[in-house]
Amino acid sequence: MVRKPPCAKGNSAFTLAEAVIVMAILAVVALLAIPRYASAANRHRASAAAHRIVADLAAAQARARTQSASQAVSFSLAAGQYQITGMSDPDHPTQPYVVRLADGPCAASLVSADFGGDATIVFDGYGVPDSGGTIVVRAGDSIRTITVDPNTGAATIQ
After folding, report:
1. Is the pLDDT higher at 118 or at 30?
2. Using an 8 Å Cβ cutoff, are 73 and 97 in contact?
3. How confident is the model at residue 11 (pLDDT cuts 50, 70, 90)?
4. Cβ-count burial 111-149 (b if 16+ within 10 Å, e if not)
5. Which positions ≥6 away from 11 have C-beta within 8 Å?
6. pLDDT band with cut points at 50, 70 and 90 for residue 10
7. Mean pLDDT of 4-13
8. Is 106 exposed, middle or buried (0-12, 13-18, 19+ CB in 10 A)?
């Protein structure tokens, strides 16, 4: 029985040309996928920031109701953060409850916060806001607008 040497014809292996073609196809696919991934990540971050704000507004409203006392949420555009006045951070009870949107999973920024001419919304002891308003957050090219109803204080994302 005669054996073929390893370099003989009929051996299955990739040629350099085939490997280069496969790598070129993979590079084209990657170039098409990267912008889509970045856009999807920005949409997710903007939505996460908006949902966080909506949840915190609801928490502040519920706190106002349970304590029968006014509860303010102040937005600082320059610092890219907001604070629930008088509430301590659940993870650090000695510190105030401040959310920096640029930190953590959101990696977003505050574009605007307007509640009847100022950047603070105050819920009275019944949970009714002093005014309605809007908050706009951005992550990359993705923008989400949160609207607060002036009568109920319910926040919705658009």
Report:
1. 118
2. no
3. low
4. eebebeeebbbbbbeebebbebbebbbbbeebbbebebe
5. 4
6. low
7. 64
8. buried
> Quick check: 147 and 140 in contact, CB under 8 A?
no
**Within 10 Å of residue 87's Cβ, how many Cβ atoms?**
17
Q: Concatenated DSSP letters for the chain?
A: -PPPPTTSTT-----HHHHHHHHHHHHHHHHHHHHHHHHHHHHHHHHHHHHHHHHHHHHHHHHHHHHTS-EEEEEETTTTEEEEEEEE-SSSTTSEEEEETTSTTT--EEEEEEBTTBSEEEE-TTS-BSS-EEEEEEETTEEEEEEE-TTT--EEE-
Check if the beta carbon of residue 99 is closer than 8 Å to that of residue 92: no
pLDDT tens per residue across span 37-53: 888 999 999 999 999 99
User: Distance between CA atoms of 17 and 14, rounded to whole angstroms?
Assistant: 8
pTM of the model: 0.79
Question: What residues are paired with 123 via a beta bridge?
Answer: 71, 129
Q: What angle do CA 47, 104, 147 make, to 5 degrees?
A: 30
What domains can be seen in the chain, in order of their start residue? 16-157 (3.55.40.10)
Average pLDDT rounded to a whole number, residues 46-67? 96
